[in-house]
Design goal:
This protein has 548 residues and is of the alpha+beta class. A hairpin with a 2-residue loop joins strand 12 and strand 13. Helix 4 packs parallel to helix 7. 46% of the residues are buried.
């Protein structure tokens, strides 16, 4: 279904020739990466809701609609649809109309029980957005928006397993949306069994038992510094097994954890711009995906449960950049990403703004400060993170005779979920014992070593942490002349970024907000910068300059 059901909202947002563009959109079978989520339906909904809101459509949260209101909206959408567009979608395509007539649609509704748990409402929201985007041509969309309010996609994801009428309804309405789920787990990348000890040291995933009958040991998958896709461009960190999982009682294991407020030094690490589980296929274009950086910097977070505003900042210095092992001369970027998201935005599946700074560029030039809707929002490190940690597999206890970058011996408890590995210090005398990790690793999605955890509000020691670096003088040239920060996606949340207006003021969530817990597959989100602005800057130099 996934191969048949892809669609990009970008085609709608950038319509130049409505009729030809509508048909091109209908015949497109894969959404671009910026219109996909990160492995869950909830992240896909958040991403697409952001694009709907950017268009300035009259819209409100799905959860604020009644089932009857949504059915009235669906009837109006059905009446406005283009039969030419509808006929494009073949049988099996998730965008294909489920009904041949409005009477058939209404007859189906009459056969359903009362909507007791919101599943019918959420199903109708999915269908309404799908019909608006896929069944209405551009002019019809404009006309519909003048008369009706479109629901946003829902916050919650329901099970599609079951034979009852409501489950079947819900399952049938998310077939198109699932094409936007995206994320590493939906790349369709064929996994390859690691054939050597070195390959196994770099990548050993918890699903290898099912795929290849390979059981990852305590020292497998710990990775180490890398600068290219092949294992020849990787240095395995020396590792000694202290104890197998079965030899460490549950109560003696140091469980993975992350505090809600902190600042910490990223002593060193490796990052790959095109994060993946396997470099056979990449979502990012050309050499950008295979850019590797040796990184250091600082990481700040303020995301207390129940707070009206969550904040995340990455200050990252790229000691050097390589394109799959080949050094790129004269490039050692010093970049910052600041993510902000209010509780109200989270409730609306609005990911909030992300401000990116490239240090060293004069204020008056474009590109030094850019703002765009955040790719994923600020991760919920206490609810979704804690839920994900519960799912992690204990791999055993290890000793690294020399921890990378710090050059000291360390004993660690090793935990893993799929491709993601986290390492907790077993030394009870370290300040972050049982509270925060010392190290993390993944084969193609970043490694890092941390030190000097300060578990308090970052503003206590660094009052300007959330505004530092945002320009104080307007740009004198370029498309955002007169602004302090370029609004790359023409989004209302990025229209006026300054040290006075950013971060935004906190706003509470509506009292009916549903809290969703995410899976361990999303644990990678807080650890590394998204890199969108830097990638765009590098791409603007041209692919030929990157392959040296």
């Amino acid at each position: 279904m996934r191969s048949l059901c892809a669609f990009s909202l970008a085609a709608v947002l950038a319509s130049a020739d409505p009729s030809s563009n509508d048909l091109k959109r209908a015949r497109t079978f894969r959404p671009r990466a910026e219109y996909q989520g990160h492995g869950t339906l909830a992240s896909a909904n958040a991403r697409l809701n952001g694009h709907l809101l950017q268009r300035g459509l009259p819209a409100k949260a799905c959860e604020e609609h009644t089932t009857e209101e949504l059915r009235s909206t669906l009837s109006a959408l059905f009446a406005a649809r283009s039969e030419e567009l509808v006929s494009v979608y073949p049988k099996g395509d998730g965008r294909r109309s489920a009904y041949d007539s409005r009477a058939e649609m209404e007859r189906h509704w009459s056969q359903l029980p009362e909507d007791e748990d919101g599943r019918q409402r959420d199903a109708h929201c999915h269908e309404a957005v799908m019909m608006f985007i896929h069944h209405l041509d551009d002019l019809a969309q404009q006309d519909f928006s003048k008369k009706h309010e479109l629901p946003l996609l829902p916050q919650r994801e329901h099970s599609v397993k079951g034979d009852d009428a409501v489950t079947k309804l819900y399952a049938s309405k998310v077939t198109c949306q699932k094409c936007h789920v995206g994320g590493i787990d939906s790349l369709g990348v064929p996994e390859l069994a690691p054939l050597t000890d070195k390959a196994k040291a770099r990548r050993c995933y918890t699903n290898y038992k099912d795929l290849f009958n390979i059981t990852c040991g305590p020292c497998d998958g710990i990775a180490g510094p890398y600068w290219g896709d092949s294992d020849e461009k990787f240095t395995a960190t020396k590792c000694e097994i202290v104890a197998q999982p079965e030899d460490v009682p549950e109560e003696k294991r140091v469980k993975p954890k992350l505090p809600p407020q902190f600042s910490v030094d990223v002593v060193g690490g490796s990052d790959r711009f095109g994060r993946t589980t396997n470099p056979v296929h990449d979502q990012l274009p050309g050499p950008i995906a295979k850019l590797y950086g040796q990184i250091s910097g600082k990481w700040f977070m303020d995301a207390k449960p129940g707070a009206d505003l969550w904040l995340l900042r990455h200050d990252t210095i790229y000691g050097e950049l390589m394109e799959d092992g080949t050094r790129i001369p004269f490039l050692k970027p010093n970049v910052t990403e600041i993510h902000a998201q209010t509780a109200k935005q989270r409730a609306e599946n609005n990911t909030g703004p992300m401000v990116s700074l490239i240090h060293g560029m004069p204020d008056f030039l474009p590109g030094g400060c850019t703002c765009m809707p955040d790719p994923v929002g600020v991760p919920d490190t206490q609810a979704s993170w804690a839920h994900g940690l519960d799912e992690m597999q204990y791999m055993g206890r290890i000793k690294l005779p020399e921890l990378e970058y710090l050059k000291v011996p360390i004993e660690l408890d090793h935990w893993a979920s799929w491709f993601f590995h986290i390492f907790m210090d077993t030394n009870t005398s370290v300040p972050h014992y049982g509270k925060a990790p010392s190290r993390l690793a993944s084969a193609y999605a970043g490694t890092a070593v941390y030190a000097n955890w300060v578990m308090e509000d970052p503003k206590i020691r660094d009052p300007n942490v959330w505004t530092r670096g945002i320009p104080t003088h307007p740009e004198k040239v370029g498309p955002s002349k007169g602004k302090l920060c370029m609004d790359t996606h023409k989004s209302p949340i990025c229209a006026d970024i300054s040290q006075d207006t950013f971060p935004p003021k906190g706003e509470p969530a509506p009292p009916t907000t549903i809290v969703n817990k995410r899976s361990a597959e999303e644990l990678r989100l807080p650890f590394f910068p998204a890199g969108h602005n830097l990638a765009e800057q590098l791409a603007s130099r041209g692919d030929r300059e990157l392959v040296v």
